Amino acid sequence: MIRTRPVSSWGSAPGSEGEKGSAKSIEDEARQTRRNIVKRHDRAVVSIFERFEKDNAISPEEANELRAARKDINEITEYASVDLENAYKKDGWLACEAAG
Question: What is the 3-state secondary structure (H, E, C) of the chain?
Fold first, then answer.
């Protein structure tokens, strides 16, 4: 008796749903990466806002994290950090909400 694999395990032909699903997963992964970069920036900003409420000084680690987060987010869209930080200054709740 010859054993064969079930049809469902054969894989997808080029141009079929399998490839489309793969492209979609790449898009989803890129979208998630962008979200994580934005959240990182937001957490850095919230941390600094909270520090200013307590003692009006930030640590070198916080300053370095904000610099790195700004660099990453500005690679997505030029001046994104400036735009977001201006929005957060007007409404601090935005940063807390975005940081998750």
Answer: CCCCCCHHHCCCCCCCHHHHHHHHHHHHHHHHHHHHHHHHHHHHHHHHHHHHHHCCCCCHHHHHHHHHHHHHHHHHCCCHHHHHHHHHHHCHHHHHHHHC
Helices and strands counted in the chain (H then E): 4, 0
**Integer Cα distance of 88 and 100 in angstroms:** 14
Higher pLDDT among residues 22 and 74, named by residue: 74
pTM: 0.66
